[in-house]
Amino acid sequence: MAGKKTYLSCLDSVKPVRDALDVINGKWKLPIIISVGVGNERFTDIQESIPGITPKAMAKELKELEQHKLLERIVTNDYPVKITYKWTPYAHTLTPIIDALKEWGIKHREELFKN
């Protein structure tokens, strides 16, 4: 029975981690989240801050991040119409995760390249 308990205990961790990764995983989602978080609001500003992203890929990712309630798309009916993106209050829950990933990435790079 211990084997089954360990298996279930593993699933208790794996399932929510998989759910989280499904939301932020991929080549562009975290860079977009970070770009908007540091103040880039306009489509072109976000795109210019992320080397290599195509407008089509960015539009798709922005839409998905909006569906997951991490970004808000704001349409200002001026002339011309102005569209901006901002973090939702919920997106701020990612700050400690992004900070932890950044710190781990720095330490991992040091570990890989130490002499």
Automatic annotation (TrEMBL):
Superkingdom field: Bacteria
Pfam family, one: HxlR
Keywords: DNA-binding, Transcription, Transcription regulation
Database matches in PROSITE patterns: HTH_HXLR
InterPro entries tied to this protein: HTH_HxlR, WH-like_DNA-bd_sf, WH_DNA-bd_sf
HTH hxlR-type domain residues: 15-113
Protein name: HxlR family transcriptional regulator
Organism: Kaistella solincola
